[in-house]
Structure formats: C-alpha cells, structure tokens
Amino acid sequence: MTHPDSLQTLLSLVPPEHGADEQVDWAAAEKALGTRLPSDYQAFMAAYGAGSFGELGILGPLPVEYPQWNPGSIVEDTPQLRMLCAEEAGRHAPAIDAAAVLAWGTGCNANELGWLTVDEDPDRWPVVAWRRQIAWNDSHVAVFDCGMTDFLVRMMRAEFDTCPLGDAPLWGRTAPFVHWREQQRRWQAGLCPETGEPDPVVQGFLQWP
C-alpha cells in the first residue's frame, strides 16, 4: 500500500524548507496508540514534522506543548474522525469499522484524513477521508487504496479520477510546507502563519486588549 518512492516524490514537489524533524518517541507513540504507524509517515515526521501544506494540516502522533494554539495530534484528533465515520454508516458509505480509523490530517475546509487500520502491517493501511462537501447521494466517507504520502502526491498531481476532498486548494497544485512551530512563531511576530508576510489581521488580533 505504501509506495516506496512516494516520500521522495513529495520532497521534490515541496522541499521541506520550513519543516523540522519532529524527533518523535516512536515507542511512546506506539504505546499511546496501541499500534505501529506506517513507515512513510515516520519518514515524513523526520523530514517535515507536523505542520501544514497551505490549508491541509498533517498531525504529529502525540500531544505537544505549544505557545499559541494546539496543533492537534493523532491521539487527540482520532476520536472526532471516528465519530464522523460512525455517523456516516449506511448512507452510501463504504463498509468500514469506524473504530479502526486513525487520524493523520485535517483542513481544506474541514475535511478529515486518516488510515483504515485493516492490516497487521501499517504499510498496507489505505487512506480514509471524511469530506464535508459532497455530491448528491455520495458518501462523506471515502477510502483510497494508497498510503499517506502517496495520497498527498496523487492529490497534488491530480492523479485521482476526481478531487479526493470536498475542497480543492491542493488539487493539481502544491503549497509550501510550514512546520507548526514556525507557524506559531510567525503569528506571534504579527506575520501570516502560511506565508510569513506581515498580516494586519494577525497584528490587530495581537493588539486586541
């Protein structure tokens, strides 16, 4: 399921200029989650860390201390994604066990992304998406036969039949990756978290009494 070259392709599409090794304690993550995580995700955390491609956030595995806002984590975000998947059962949705879902991404107009942990080998887990905006008689839940980094590459290259999410800012295009700590540093400096440019809205918020 996990394509061996997908991370290298992603690195060529979006160099991790503002990424950072998350330095994850993988033993602690496995204990907290009750499972190992896919090898491409682990390699992603070493190359990029947790953060965002534009509007799409990639979660770290464990909760962290933060200076401004909670960047989220697999541990914290998974219950919400499981609830959304469980609510969709029977509504033209693929037959999945919501309890087998682990979250790894969020954003692009409140879409949620995760893995369907249907195999003992995490590298064989498909991606599951909960899409807020869908066509009539479609399901909010969709399963994609690929790993996380391959999903990101195929979305940025528009290699699915249609946009896999309900919003399309990364469909057929890329966005710079910014680590969550850099985003929060920018915010505290009055800059746009995504671009690093001065942002009057952020500056006004920081000056609010």
UniProtKB/TrEMBL annotation:
It comes from the Bacteria. Pfam families: SUKH_6 (PF14568). Transmembrane segments: none annotated. InterPro entries: Knr4/Smi1-like_dom, Knr4/Smi1-like_sf. SUPFAM superfamilies: SMI1/KNR4-like (SSF160631). SMART domains: SMI1_KNR4 (SM00860). Residues 19-154 form the Knr4/Smi1-like domain. This is SMI1/KNR4 family protein. The lineage of its organism: Bacteria, Bacillati, Actinomycetota, Actinomycetes, Kitasatosporales.
